[in-house]
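Bumping my old thread because nobody answered last time. Still need a sequence for this structure:
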């Protein structure tokens, strides 16, 4: 991260870990399965996959979700070969994330996954640390790229905001509303720049007619009432409440930025078309919480999910004031108990399937 931030989810298997608090992300991955299966079918239609298939998951994180996408792709490959009486190719599975990811957990899960596929065919696995906004693989070497809940994370915070010292979330509601469009636009421009780089870089790494299936949190382009809603609202609303009560410093909150953005479905389509390396097979728009069991949407569970995602970033900026994380969790739980629907609940889950142009 050029911003100096080190981004990762809570490690380990404890109560506050991402491994135990990623139900929403898993539901999103399940909604991608049919697109991944279609992508595997497209590979055999359009590319020479008789000898080997290379599958990469970018932003794999850790925990039980780390292998969900690649397992879907590998299973689909085995089934396709069985159904069409084809020889199973050698399969390479590559998992990528930033350097501070819990790769010890990923390595253990990769080993178990590799063991479970022995009866079907050879699967070689590897970990590739680094930013997916840079080159990760050799040219024309990857058949299928997957990514879920990762491309919302930008390469850096918009420089205009930091240089001008414009807070993401002003204390004064009137000023916050007045500045909101400028703040969101700054993040939008950074997303366009980053996502264009991502597409261009992946186009060089994918084989001709290679496939990508991506998902991220986004906004509805059809509803102007939600044009300024962003994923970071779920973080800044409770932090603003804590600052108003003196739990954290207002000055520290005003200097806190997080490289996170949710595009609209229209915005996503326009960037892909403008970059020009890919044909859009399909774009799907889902409610973010669809597919998540109602029993897993309680205020307490949602507060712990926020902690799993944001605790390392909060600590990196605010330090470890006594009780600040517990208060963060408690504030979210209280807010959701009184007002069950938060602004972030209007966000959507966007899935896009792409084919690299010849």
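Sorry it took so long. Here it is:
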């Amino acid at each position: 991260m050029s911003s100096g931030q080190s981004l990762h989810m809570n490690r380990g298997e404890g109560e506050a870990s991402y491994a135990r608090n990623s139900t929403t992300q898993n539901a999103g991955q399940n909604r991608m399965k049919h697109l991944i299966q279609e992508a595997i079918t497209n590979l055999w239609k359009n590319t020479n996959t008789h000898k080997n298939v290379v599958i990469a998951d970018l932003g794999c994180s850790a925990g039980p979700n780390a292998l969900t996408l690649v397992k879907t792709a590998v299973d689909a490959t085995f089934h396709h070969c069985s159904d069409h009486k084809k020889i199973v190719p050698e399969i390479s599975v590559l998992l990528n994330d930033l350097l501070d990811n819990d790769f010890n957990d990923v390595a253990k899960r990769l080993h178990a996954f590799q063991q479970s596929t022995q009866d079907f065919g050879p699967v070689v696995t590897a970990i590739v640390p680094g930013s997916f906004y840079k080159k990760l693989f050799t040219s024309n070497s990857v058949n299928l790229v997957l990514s879920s809940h990762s491309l919302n994370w930008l390469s850096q915070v918009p420089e205009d905001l930091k240089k001008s010292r414009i807070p993401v979330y002003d204390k004064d509601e009137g000023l916050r509303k007045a500045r909101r469009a400028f703040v969101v636009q700054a993040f939008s421009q950074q997303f366009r720049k980053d996502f264009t780089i991502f597409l261009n870089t992946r186009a060089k790494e994918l084989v001709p007619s290679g496939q990508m299936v991506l998902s991220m949190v986004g906004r509805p382009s059809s509803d102007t009432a939600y044009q300024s809603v962003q994923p970071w609202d779920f973080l800044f609303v409770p932090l603003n409440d804590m600052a108003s009560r003196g739990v954290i410093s207002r000055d520290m909150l005003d200097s806190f930025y997080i490289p996170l953005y949710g595009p609209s479905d229209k915005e996503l389509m326009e960037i892909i078309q403008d970059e020009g390396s890919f044909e859009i097979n399909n774009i799907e728009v889902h409610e973010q919480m669809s597919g998540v069991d109602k029993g897993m949407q309680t205020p307490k569970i949602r507060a712990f999910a926020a902690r799993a995602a944001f605790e390392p970033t909060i600590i990196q900026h605010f330090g470890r004031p006594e009780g600040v994380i517990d208060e963060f969790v408690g504030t979210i739980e209280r807010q959701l108990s009184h007002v069950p629907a938060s602004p972030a609940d209007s966000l959507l889950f966007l899935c896009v399937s792409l084919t690299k142009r010849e």
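Strands lie at 52-58, 90-97, 123-129, 142-148, 206-218, 278-287, 348-356. Let me know if any region looks off to you.
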